[in-house]
Please model this.
Amino acid sequence: MDEIRDKSIWITGASSGIGRALVCRLAARNNFIVISSRSRGKLLELQKIAPQRIRVLDCDVGDSEDMARAARELAGLTDQLDLVIAGAGVCEYDDDLQLDTASYRRVFDVNFFGAVNTLRCALPLLAGSRAPQFAAVGSLSSVVGFPRAEAYGASKAALAYFLDAVRADTSQVALQVAHIRPGFIDTPLTESNDFAMPFLMSPEQAAERIERGLARRHHTIDFPRRLSWPLRLLAFFRPLWFRLCAPRLTRIHSLRNR
Ligand SMILES: NC(=O)c1ccc[n+]([C@@H]2O[C@H](COP(=O)([O-])OP(=O)(O)OC[C@H]3O[C@@H](n4cnc5c(N)ncnc54)[C@H](OP(=O)(O)O)[C@@H]3O)[C@@H](O)[C@H]2O)c1
Model:
């Protein structure tokens, strides 16, 4: 019931962190998995855990031309996908409200346009499945506005809207759309964070929650609850977030000497 077994799956962001842990978990359940990221070497290394059931497709999810090439190669690897997990992501913080649009574009290219490109490549193959699922990894950071997360949080909030709209657009067809929102996970993405990360989880714990949520066909997969419930409550009572929490978290104390 809580396992994903014997499916045909495509996972982006597979070379590291949460994506890698998902591949390890799902490969042990007789799933056929296409793994993607930019680092072909890391993917080939990961393929060794189940060479018969894992195929490597290196691509840059933020590059539409490269994704057109990836779509052609994907169609050569499998004629059907039951589950796609758009997990590729990057994080850049906006220190001191620099508002550097180049940084914002880099983050949106992967976190938002990467998911759009992934769905475009996958849709023809998802159409071949009887119970297709498209899941994307957002973040609990999009629930409320976090200081320094203007670019990252906004890209994940845009992703949230995109997923809702796709879900609405496909409400008469079989496609199930899932929004995965992790809290803090101990991966290369967070290793340089210089602030306390409450309820930090391992990638393996995250992969377990994600598999369970997807197997139960949940639309929203939030974890850990100890973080998601307080954040959802604060999002409901937004003035509390801005009055009580944000002033403790921001590092900006003057607009002149930022
Ligand atoms: N760690 C957390 O606390 C946390 C919390 C909430 C949400 N998330 C989300 O979870 C997802 C996975 O993050 P993670 O923590 O596992 O980070 P990670 O270990 O840094 O993994 C990121 C993955 O994305 C891939 N990637 C990055 N840019 C790419 C691109 N342009 N094209 C293709 N692949 C690309 C990376 O591979 P290459 O570098 O080889 O391309 C890597 O496989 C992300 O969407 C992240 O935003 C993470």
Q: What stands out?
A: The chain has one domain: 8-249.
